[in-house]
Structure formats: C-alpha cells, structure tokens
Amino acid sequence: MSRGSSRDFALGAAFASACMVALWLLAVTSLAGRAHIHNQWVEQAYAHKLAAAAAETRPRVLIVAGSGAMFGIDSGLLGNELRRPVINLGVNAGVLAPFIIKYARQALRPGDWVILPLEYPLYHDEEMINRQFVDFYTTHPLPIREIGWQRWFRLMWQLPLERMLEGYRGLPPGFSVAGLYGPQNLDKRGDQINSEAAHRTEAMREAVRQSAAEQYGVRARRGGASWARWKAFAQEIEAVGGCAFFIPPAMLYRPSYHNDVIERNYYETLSAAARSNGLTYVGQPLDFMYDESAFFDTNFHLTAESRSKHTQRLATLLKSAINSRCK
C-alpha cells in the first residue's frame, strides 16, 4: 500500500470512528427523560419526600443519605427530640453523591439543619459508576462538570446496549411500583414503613446473615475520595444560614472491622479525616454498628424496632452539637 493510500485509509478509519462515537452519544442523549423501569421506585420515592419537604413551612431538619437513612431514622422521634419537623430524604445510595446532593438541593431552604448519615461508600465514590447510577444518569443526565470527566467517559464506554434498548421500550403497560421499596412503603415524613422484625421473611434474614464484611478501608486507599464534593455542599447549606452535620450510619458489625488493621484504621480515623477535610462530623463509626438481629434485609437497613433505639442515640449525640453550632 502506498503512503498516500495508507494516509487515506487512516483518515477514513478516523472519520468512521468519529461518526460512530457521535451516533452513540446522540443515541445516549435521546434517552434523557425516558422512563426506565429500574428508576421508578427511586423517582417516585424522591417525589414523595420532596412533596413532604415542600409542604412543611416551619424550619426543618433534612436527613440526606441513601436507603440506610430511609430504614434507619425515626423522623418523628428525632423531630420531637430536636424540636423541629424532620423530613427523611434518604432513598438509594446506589445513585451516588451527585444525585443525592441534587435532590437535597431541591428541598433545601434557608435555616435548615441537614443531617447526613452517609453510607461509607459515599465518601469515596468520586470516580465510581454502577448499574444503578448508569440507569439513573441515562434518564436524568447531569452536566459533565457535576460528575467529572473521568466518570463520564467511563459511563459512556460502559453503558450497556441493553440499557439503551430498555430506555426506548419504556415502561410495560399498566406498570406500577410494588414491593418493599417505593412510595407505597413510606410514611408522611419519608421513613420506611412495614419494616418491623415480624415482617422479615426467612430470605431477608438469610440475606443479612450472608452479608459479607465490607472492605471500605481497602476501597478508600484506592482513591476516589468525595470530601471536596461534600464540603462544597455543606458550605452551600451554611451560606443560607443552615447547619450540616455528618454522622455515622447504622451498619452491621463484623469482627474484621476490629481485627483487620486496614478496616479498623478506616473506621477509627474516619471522623478525624472528615473534620480535616472541612466537614462537621459527629460520633464514631464503630459505636453505631449492631448485630444481625437489628437488621431487616441488608447490612444497612434496620428493623423498625432497632431504628427507634438507634435514633434515640443519634438524638443524644446531635443535641449538644446543634446547641453549640446552630442558632
């Protein structure tokens, strides 16, 4: 092949590749706003919670996290202790920090106290993608600057063709959200209902028993820290006269959290690491880990009975912090 022919071939291949990339991006963009079956319980749960937040005219306490807070906070009890109405905005940690913050911003008003019992992966999810995030982002795209260029490139590269086809198919006829997760199992404050220990099935108990020990300490060492993102959000809250408090979530205890040097160090130093990165972190993670009997169906979801005990402990922890920092 002559030099000119080689150059023409390379240019042609580059042009064809550019066209394919452009068509793929156009196809992805066309999915924005299209209903997707896996998103429905999350979308409807957020709609329920944002409506509850909007209906409350008094200064409020907003709970911001994933489903661990949805199951783990008794908003009525916490409101009585803090003497403010509490709205629980916890839905799903799988949609990751960008979307959790997006929905919290929609609810935020001047003077709100914001409590963030974030699941531990949310402190180290800056470069993370997972299927829940992919599904949600494809329907609800965010500006690239809000998720980061590296994550955006990975998302475009790893977006399954299956997800593309599901987006074009839309929802099945007569579809409605059912099952454990969704607005049908939320009370007026956004807390999960029907999560009493008596409602646990054997499969739920087994899921808790089989929960492997997490390796968040190892994950944190790989990078992807989201401290700057959470600090910026806390500063937004404080700029409108509010207060932001980061606290430990309830989590299933495993012996390795004490016995493994990396994992123990992670939990023992997390509060100090948060404070060194500009967050007001109250409490110690290892103090809010419980045994299997306290959990409903995952290692972050408390039963209703355990939720009350956990919330009482959080209220005691938060009162002094709020009195010292919030007017």
Write up what this structure looks like:
There is one protein chain. The chain is mainly alpha-helical and 327 residues long. The chain has a 4-stranded parallel β-sheet, sandwiched between helices. Strands 5-6 form a two-stranded parallel ribbon. The mean pLDDT is 92. Helices cover 52% and strands 6% of the residues. It has helices spanning 3-29, 40-55, 67-72, 75-82, 96-107, 131-139, 144-147, 149-158, 161-169, 202-209, 216-221, 227-239, 256-259, 261-276, 304-325; strands at residues 61-63, 86-88, 113-116, 243-246, 251-252, 289-290. It is globular. The protein has one domain (39-130, 170-325): Rossmann fold (3-Layer(aba) Sandwich), CATH 3.40.50.
Determine the CATH topology: Rossmann fold
Helix fraction by DSSP (H/I, runs of at least 4): 40-55%
Strand order of the largest sheet: 2-1-3-4
CATH-scheme architecture = 3-Layer(aba) Sandwich
Shape: globular
SSE series: HHEHHEHEHHHHHHHEEHHEH
Low-confidence stretches: none
Into which percentage range does the β-strand content fall?
A: 5-15%
- Mean pLDDT score: 92
Q: Can you count the beta strands?
A: 6
CATH homologous superfamily descriptor? SGNH hydrolase
Computed structural class: mainly alpha
Over the alpha carbons, how many angstroms does the gyration radius reach?
A: 22 Å
Supply the number of structural domains.
1
Under the CATH scheme, which class? Alpha Beta
Q: With helices defined by DSSP (H or I, 4 residues minimum), what is the helix count?
A: 15
Distance N to C terminus? 78 Å
